[in-house]
C-alpha cells in the first residue's frame, strides 16, 4: 500500500479507534449493569425464601429494578450523559440503602450473598468515573 494512502487513512483509523473506546466503555457498563441486576435479583429471591426482613427484600428488589433501568438507559440511543448520570445516581442511592441493611444485619451469610452485588456495583462506579474522566480530557478538553 502506498505511503500516501496510509497517510490519508490515518484520520479514519484514529476516528474508528476513538469510537471503539466509547463503545467498549458503554459495553462494559452494560455488562456490569446486567451482572448487578442478576446478582441483586438472586439476592432478592434468597431474602424472600429465607424470610429476611421486608425492608431488606424491598431494598434488594428496588436495587435490581434500578440496575435494570440503568442498563436500559445505557442502551437507549436517545439518552445523553445527563440521563446516564441521573440513572446512576438512582442506582447508587438504592445500592447504598441495601448496603446499609446488609451492614445492620451483621450476618456473615448476608455479607457473602451481597459480595457479587458489591463487585458489580463497584465495576459500574469505576466505569462511570473512567467515562467521566475520559469525557473531561477528550471531549470537553
Which key features would you list for this structure?
4 helices; 141 residues
Task: Give your account of this protein's structure.
The chain is mostly helical. It has a single domain, classed as Four Helix Bundle (Hemerythrin (Met), subunit A) (Up-down Bundle), CATH 1.20.120. 90% of the residues lie in helices and 0% in strands. It has four helices and no strands. The chain has helices at 3-50, 54-75, 81-105, 108-139. Helix 2 (54-75) packs antiparallel against helix 3 and helix 3 (81-105) packs antiparallel against helix 4. The longest helix is centred in the first third of the chain and has 48 residues, at 3-50. The radius of gyration is 19 Å and the shape is elongated. It starts with a helix and ends with a helix. Mean pLDDT is 81; it is low at 9-24.
